C-alpha cells in the first residue's frame, strides 16, 4: 500500500521534468525561428503595426460626423490610407534625399569633434593627451554613419514587402467574424472569442495610434527647434527623433544627443549647442512625460524592468528594427494576455502598477 503514493510521486516528478524540458525546447525553437526567419518576420511585424495604425486612423475618421452623417467606411479607409502613405512618403523622401549628404558631411564633423575632444582632454594634463589623441584617431564616425545608412537602405529595400502585406490584411479584416462563426460551433464560445478579439484589437489600435501621434509630435517639435537654430539636415534628425521615440528611454536620449552633437561641431559658438540640447530635451520631456501618459492613461503601462528586458531581447534578436518595435510588440503581447483569463496574471506581472485594463 505504501508503494502506491511513492509511485504517484515519481510519476508526478517525471511529468514535471517533461513539462520543463518541453518548455525549454519550445523557447529555444521560438528564438531560433525568430532569428532565422528575421528577413520575413521583420517586414511582417512592421506590416502588422502599419495595419493596426491604418485601421485605427480609419475608425477615427469614420466616427467624424458631417451634416448629421458619419463618414462612409470606404471613404474613411481611403482617407486613412492616403494620410499614412503621405506620411511615409515624406519620411522616405527625406531619408533618400539627405542620406548621401549626411554621409558626406560626417568626415567634417569627425574632424571638428576630434579637435573639440582633444582640447577638452588636454585640460586634464599633458600626460594623457597623447593617449587621448591615439584613441580619437581610431574613432571612425564616417564608417559608423555608413553602416547606419546601409541598414536604412536594407530596410527601405524590404519595405515593398510591408506594402504587399497590408492590402491583404485589409481584405482579410471583414470576413474574419464569419470565419470565427464557421470555425467555432459553440455560439457562446464564438461570442467570447469575438469579444476578446475586439477588445484586444481596440486596445492595440489605441496604443499604436497614440504612440505614433506623440512620436510625430516629438519629431515636429524637435524640427522646429533645430530649424530655428539653423542646424544642418534638421529634417533628417527630426525623422530620426520620430523613429527613436518608439525606443524606450534610450531612443529619447539619442534623439536629443545626436542633433546636439551636430550643433556642437557645426557652430563655432556654444549657444546653438545649448539651444538644441535644452529645446529638444524640453520637447522630449513634455511629450514623453506629460502628454503621452495623459493620453495613454495607466492601463497600458509596462514595468520598467520589462521595458529594459524587451529592449534587450528584441535588439539582440532583430537589431535596430527590433529596438524600434520592442515596446509596441511587448505591449501588444501584454494586451493579448490581459484579455485571456488564464494568462491575465502574467500581464499583471508585466505591467507597471498591476492595472492592465478590463477583463476579457
UniProtKB/TrEMBL annotation:
InterPro entries: AI-2E-like (IPR002549). GO terms for biological process: transmembrane transport. Coiled coil: none annotated. It is a multi-pass membrane protein. It comes from the Bacteria. The keyword Coiled coil does not apply. Pfam families: AI-2E_transport. The keyword Hydrolase does not apply. Its main location: membrane. GO terms for cellular component: membrane. It is found in: Membrane. The chain crosses the membrane at residues 20-53, 74-95, 144-166, 213-231, 237-258, 270-291, 311-337. Keywords: Membrane, Transmembrane, Transmembrane helix. Belongs to the autoinducer-2 exporter (AI-2E) (TC 2.A.86) family. This is AI-2 transport protein TqsA. It comes from Ruegeria arenilitoris. The lineage of its organism: Bacteria, Pseudomonadati, Pseudomonadota, Alphaproteobacteria, Rhodobacterales.
